[in-house]
Amino acid sequence: MYFFVSNLSFLDMSYTSVTIPKMLAKFLMNLDTISYIACFAQMYIFLSLAATECLLLAVMAYDRYLAICKPLHYPTIMTKRLYITLAVVAWSGGFGILLILLILALRLPFCGPNIIHHYYCDHPPLLQLACASTSFNVAVGSSIGAFIILISFTLVAISYVKIVVAILKINSGVGRRKTFSTCASHFAVVNVFYLPLIFMYIRPTASYSSDVDSLVAMLYTVLTPMMNPIIYSLRNKDIKDAFQKKISLKFIRTGFNAEWKLREH
What is the spatial distance between Cα 259 and Cα 245, in angstroms, rounded to a whole number? Predict the structure, then answer.
């Protein structure tokens, strides 16, 4: 579980680093230009990281399914070789399949307006600037988005249906709460991440409202990476216990220093 959480943390830091610095440069210093190559690189890396997160969340759901539904077999099934392989498949799959969108977008002629009505170079607003028909690009983009998002979301849903069934079979109320707490944080992350992503990328046309889309994009580009550490930390008993010990130790040391200074005077 912690191996996959560390992958998720690195992924969140990576794709916020792709968009946030340029966005802050625009807002704080009014640096509102980006080169042609940098724009396409930003689009490809960001979408690849988003696709990787979809696949990684599906892998994490499978991990939770094994931990809850097959606890005695978990160490023999989820071996080091398997969880490393699953992580590699998620990363390589996310970056591999998005190469198709990048190649198709690079083949388009851009000879008209050069203003992107978005706070980063995303696929739909970038297609609006093309001087040729983008219907094929839109169809391919929607198909890839539907394939990645719906397939991974379906795998997550199946895993959680089986998890819920297993939890309901537990007779003890304490046991049910303890078991559910092991996957509640992942379930919260899935809901926060997938819903705006489905709205953004599974579309039949390239027409969109830039204001609405910018707001929705803010949810999974800024809010989700910001909330992930909080969700996983507050839902994890080990992390909460370590945090409480750290705070208690700090208060004890502060009280001791105050008492020592008082006596010194």
Answer: 21
Closest CA to 198 of 148, 135, 127: 148
pLDDT tens digits, 210-240: 666 666 777 777 777 777 777 666 656 666 6
Does residue 179 or residue 108 have the better pLDDT? 108
Q: Give the CB-side neighbour count of residue 39, counting CA atoms within 13 A.
A: 21
Q: Mean pLDDT highest for which of 122-126, 181-185, 215-219?
A: 122-126
pTM, rounded to two decimals? 0.78
Question: Which of 218, 51, 60, 221 has its CA nearest to residue 150?
Answer: 51
Cα dist from 108 to 28, 105, 112, 114, 137, whole Å = 32, 5, 12, 14, 9
On the CB side of 221, CA atoms within 13 Å amount to 25
Quickly count helices (H) and strands (E) in the chain: 11, 0
DSSP secondary structure string, 192-209? Answer: HHHHHHHHHH--SSS---
Of all helices (H) and strands (E), which one includes residue 151? Answer: helix 135-168
